[in-house]
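sry for the spam today, last one i promise. struct tokens for design, 272 residues
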């Protein structure tokens, strides 16, 4: 083809936002109310062994509270996995996954590493345990999509997201861009934070900045992975000027400054 199509996120968007929060603190209730008000979706990584303890979400509220968001693993008890033998690593992840699936009634396919620590033993186990991604706490300060979903690096912690969020919205790059923000909801209440100014008022201002932007797709981590995996299987035939979608979902591309949807199983001609 004279020029290559550009991939697009769902609904033809150039940019995607993922919010990612750990532990299952009771403050998730307030954070979810804020996200829902501003149309933002998030991935919440829960320690099933802590649910129901003081200052944590109750097991019986998980299914309703996190509706329209992703529930993901964070291990049963939040140990440093690198310090554990393989059998204990398996138990911490798999038991958490099974308990969360019981509570949500839905597959649980992601993991946030406790303390952000991981090694080759752990990442090698994840596919076997039915885990499709492992999120770290490494911040890149960029808007690139991770090359390895099992060592998923973030854009930034939420305390640094305001300035980067402005840069993100102002960027005019034609390539796909992802802003991936992580944190803990209890930090917004002033617990275990180095900057108490990054409070609920700050978070609401950040949500106002990022909501309802015309170029922005709001998505969870696992939904993003499923979409990207399908997108990368689009088959372009330059000689025939066609694109074929072998997946079961609608995929989006931009061709000659026109955004186009490619339906499930559709083979589409790309005319000049």
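last one done:
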């Amino acid at each position: 083809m004279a020029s290559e199509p550009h991939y697009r996120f769902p609904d033809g968007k150039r940019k995607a936002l993922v919010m990612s929060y750990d532990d299952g603190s009771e403050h998730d209730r307030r954070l979810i109310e804020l996200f829902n008000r501003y149309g933002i979706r998030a991935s919440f990584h829960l320690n099933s062994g802590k649910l129901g303890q003081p200052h944590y979400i109750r097991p019986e509220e998980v299914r309703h509270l996190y509706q329209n968001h992703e529930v993901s693993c964070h291990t049963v008890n939040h140990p440093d996995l690198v310090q554990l033998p393989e059998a204990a690593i398996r138990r911490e992840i798999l038991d958490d996954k099974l308990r969360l699936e019981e509570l949500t009634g839905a597959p649980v396919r992601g993991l946030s590493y406790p303390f952000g620590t991981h090694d080759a033993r752990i990442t090698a186990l994840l596919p076997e345990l039915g885990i499709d991604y492992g999120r770290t706490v490494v911040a890149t300060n960029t808007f690139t999509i991770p090359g390895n979903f099992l060592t998923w690096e973030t854009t930034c912690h939420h305390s640094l997201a305001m300035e980067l969020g402005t840069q993100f919205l102002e960027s005019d790059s034609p390539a796909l861009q992802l802003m991936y923000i992580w944190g803990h909801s209890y930090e917004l209440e002033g617990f275990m934070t180095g900057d108490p100014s990054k409070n609920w008022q700050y978070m609401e201002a950040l949500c106002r900045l990022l909501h309802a932007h015309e170029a922005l797709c709001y998505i969870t981590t696992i939904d993003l992975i499923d979409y990207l995996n399908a997108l990368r299987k689009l088959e372009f035939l330059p000689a025939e000027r066609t694109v074929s979608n072998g997946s079961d979902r609608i995929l989006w591309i931009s061709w000659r400054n026109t955004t186009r949807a490619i339906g499930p199983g559709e083979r589409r001609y790309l005319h000049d």
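The longest strand covers residues 15-23. ok im logging off now
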